[in-house]
Design goal:
Layout lengths: L1 H15 L6 E3 L4 E3 L17 E4 L4 E3 L4 E3 L1 E4 L3 E3 L4 E3 L3 E3 L2 E4 L2 E3 L5 E3 L4 E3 L5 E3 L1
Parallel strand pairs: 1-3, 2-4, 3-6, 4-7, 5-8, 6-9, 7-10, 8-11, 9-12, 10-13, 11-14
Length: 126
Amino acid sequence: MKTRFLLLTALLLAATAPTQALDCTFTATSGTWGNAANWDCGVVPDGDDDATITSGRTVTLAVDRTVGGLSFLSGTINGPGALTVSGNLLWNFGTLNADLRLLASGSGTLASSSKTLGPGTTLRLD
């Protein structure tokens, strides 16, 4: 009986424990955002997680995604999906061919002049 109680208590605590936000870097040369194998953290970043896209990377958003923060250091982000950033956005270089939305709770930094918004792409600041 005591063993069952301890097991049940442990399961309940594990189910209600807060999750820690991850810092994830896209490591594939080219691929979809939704493939966990393309990220160094081993999962697809979402919610409160921070995502980093570095030089020479092409990321495709097959569906809409939301992350806590985005460091878009260089590379290309393609749609058809849209990306919502609820925290901080750092955009140094790169080409954006997907809609990007920055929520009011975050801050944005556009750090250089080498940025490209593709045809029909929307950068929305809410």
